[in-house]
Amino acid sequence: MDDSSVSHHNGGQVGSQIGVSVNNKQNEESSQSVQYSIPGILHFIQHEWARFELERSQWEVDRAEFEARIAFLQGQRKGQENLKNDLVRRIKMLEYALKQERAKFHKLKYGVELQQGDVRPPPEEPPTEPEPAEKAQWKQGRQLIKQYLQEIGYTDTILDVRSNRVRTLLGLNNEEQAEDPNYRNNDNKFRERCGDSPINSLIRKYDYGGKEQRKGGVSTGGGYNEEGLSVQETAAVFANFEFLANQEMDMDEIDDLDANKPHHAPPKQGEEVDNEAEEVLNVLNLLAESEADGGGQGDECPVGVVGGGVAAAAGGGEADEKPLALGELAQLTVSNEPEAYDVAGANKESFRKTWNAKYTLRSHFDGVRALAFHPTEAALVTASEDHTLKLWNLQRTVQAKKSAGLDVEPLYTFRAHTAPVLCLAMGLPRSEECFSGGLDGTIRVWNLPPPTADPYDPYDPAVQGPVLREHTDAVWSLACAHGRLLSASADGTARLWAPRAARPLLCTLRDDAITAPHAPAPAVAADFADGEAAAAVVYRDGTMLLYDLETTQSFLRIACDSPANRIRAHPTLPLLVSAHEDRHIRFWDLGSGRCAHAMVAHLDAVTGLALDPNGLFLLSGSHDCSVRLWNLDTKTCVQEITAHRKKFDESILDVAFHPLRPYIASAGADGLAKVFV
Amino acid sequence: MADGTQILRRNQPGSRAKDFCRWPDEPFEEMDSTLAVQQFIQQTIRRDPANLEAILKMPEAQDEGVWKYEHLRQFCMELNGLAVRLQSECKPETCTQMTATEQWIFLCAAHKTPKECPAIDYTRHTLDGAACLLNSNKYFPSRVSIKESSVAKLGSVCRRVYRIFSHAYFHHRAIFDAFEKETHLCKRFTYFVTKYSIISKEILILPKLDDETPIAQTIGESEA
Ligand SMILES: [Zn+2]
Ligand SMILES: [Zn+2]
Q1: What is the rounded distance in angstroms from the CA atom of residue B165 to the CA atom of residue B161?
Q2: DSSP assignment letter at A648
Q3: What's the complex ipTM?
Q4: What are the binding positions for Zn(2+) in this chain (chain B) (predicted)?
Q5: pLDDT tens-digit map of A463-480
């Protein structure tokens, strides 16, 4: 609340404090006035200083925000330009394709070789960029199309094959088609590969795109499928195009016709396979493959504040719909322009990397409370209020496609908790284990299935390891170091475990200052400190205690203004970082126990905290829906990402760095986890 | 903090289990989140899990597709609880097939070709598959509006989910009863699928559960 009063005029507060109305600060500092007592003045100066510090940190936050905003807008503009160019190019291309088709159609229908070389663009479809020499332009366009088709691997032959097919359809020329069996073969082969001719594919694909766009309010000529295509045919091929749409995200749209590998053929898409009762779940197998296709990245927030911008613009319930409609196009703008966001860094030289959303992990039915990366692999575990944990292999689906934003299907679902799972810790490298703590008061040890496991393998009870049941209330925090596990629970204790030992509980850490009649404040979070010789535990009442793990006695007590939600030890420095309910992140000197730095880091309670393995950057998440990345040296925000939606008044619940690989992740009350690269 | 008057509906880390999600109800009209329907359903269940009528009373002007979808999400989520209990007792050695009465053997549809999975695998695979489908960005990209074609997919999920209840009922009765006593989930599910005619009544093979009102009968008729 102090924060909000910063803007008050100094004079008012001084007056009420010292009893004299003084408006000029210099007056007080020179202290000529007899009414002033030295302690009063000192107090005032101290007070003022604290306020200025606070103000300063707020300004810094604001500045970082504005910088991010500028970067976002710049990126957006560039993205829009790219989008525009891309669309213009598509329109041109389709026009050419259309004209060519019409020419052929005309030729076939009237049997005249007419105009083959000099079909003029029909008057009702003027070229997008009118030039005096239409003929030259048409040739150029034909050249372009040819070039595209050659890139795909289909040359003029195919075009001729196509015309043969049209003739057959029209019942015009059985004789011609019989002439060249080669063509026939090609034709079949081609049908197998593509389901249709490139031109028609293009047209229909575009038509599909047009539909999607119209939904989003952008209308791009959707009438192309009237060009001699049967409706059923079009419908049947839609499935195909959905994945085509996906394929084309990072490249020119036609290029990916060559991605039409047989295994992508429509029957395998499965969505139309109607097998009485079993159809739906059969599709599930294919979902990982096809999910990202249906218009693509949905509510993904590709970069920085982009998601926030979109969500804010779309507003409320419609937020889902809008980016979805744009789908791949939205993606295009972003993937084209990664460097535009570098400006976001207040400290460009030191940290040029900008994180972009890449994977959306959707499979939980309720808020994701915690996540932890695998110590070495591109895999992570999430823990949710839906009582389950899930294992995700980020590489599992990557090979299947080359698009930019991906949905990942979980590799395994861990079921054993009987209440929401609240916290998570990963074991040592090569131990292939992780630990989870739940509202049910248990801590569970899990043996991670191999990254090659199939989600629909038979159930293996050996995945469940030992269960630690000593806590008598919800377990809210777990930290693991060298085979020892540190837990903090709402029962007011923190405990140290050797999880797989015969007697796993090594010791219980209690606040001795609290005696019998009073219930101890719940422990909120704990982390190892001082090279694992000590444990830092924060409590709901704002206390922070440092325990010596040898003696189990506390040796340092710190009282914070506001209860902390997270505590993390710096990997190399004697420094603790805590995330607080009052929007602050605070830094504590481990030696003196003094607050080394405090900053207003978010617009709402700070809930998640992670340090990168080198201790250079800090990641924070908050109920204000944003994830922020901080330069630990300058304590400035280098990137802000709006990542999750709110459920009730909760939003982001956890953030994490991968210990080795360039991944960061956020977990949200909206049931999603997102991974950024 | 700045506004002590405003209720913050969140679980602060360190909350005791008994205080989890214990905040004053929020009127549905005031929920402005995209997850409002889920919030509303969970809030009503928390108030009284036995009050099926209240839980399944759809707010006015609510999109029925979304309403059904969110309820099915909630069912699948709570069914994790039953699956956890079954894991300890339903072994592939004893329950080699997914059966309820001996009349049918259900094939697990989670595989490329439907397979005779043991009951526990059927249960897990079905729930995992449902989680994937219901979270699919393709079929359910939004939680505020759902295509009619996607709503149609809820039916087959419901049929399979019901088999989990029926297997537990006929083969692991103690587990079923304990779970049902706590959650009223099967009763709620039956009420749900009958109220919205998602599953035909012949498939609902479980006897009416210890209840004075024959749910399936009354609801089914009034709706039909
Ligand atoms: Zn069984
Ligand atoms: Zn199966």
Answers
A1: 7
A2: T
A3: 0.90
A4: 90, 95, 167, 172
A5: 999 999 999 999 999 999
